[in-house]
Structures are given as C-alpha cells and as structure tokens.
Amino acid sequence: VFVLVEVFDATGTLVGVAKRAGLMPENRPNRLGRALFADSTAIVAGSMLGTSSTTAYVESASGVQAGGRTGLTALVVALLFLAALFI
Predict the structure, then answer these.
(1) Pick from 59, 67, 55: which is nearest to 21 by CA?
(2) Which positions, given as ranges, span the membrane (predicted)?
(3) pTM score, two decimals?
C-alpha cells in the first residue's frame, strides 16, 4: 500500500512541477523515468539509513514559479530545508 502512495505522490509532484516549468511539451513523450529512478534510489537509501521516506517535494513549484530553472534553485531549496531542521 505504501509503495502505491509513494509512486502516485512522486509522479504527481514531478508532473506538476515539470509542467509548471514548461519541461513537458504536449507533442513529446514525457521523460520521467530518470527522475522517478532518482526518487526511488533516494527512498531506498533513506530506508537503509532509517529515515522517513524521502521524496520530491511540491515546494519545488515555488522555486519554479519564481523563475528558477537551474540546479542553483535546487541547492538553495535544499539549504533552506536543512536550516528548517533546526527551527
């Protein structure tokens, strides 16, 4: 049951953020395979380390909305998530 929840959550988040960023044109097939593979690898690694499930966060959409399209946006969001651990 948890696997299905995680698959639908990750797929919905990735599709939503990718469409918002304009990375999923209507006339081309989607390329979510690599993103879903990275997400599943992070979930397995997190499970082995005893953490809660790791996943793609929908908060990434706010970075896309603000105009972020590069890895720098992901790095800033990651640092802010890290800072939120101590708040």
Answers:
(1) 67
(2) 70-86
(3) 0.67
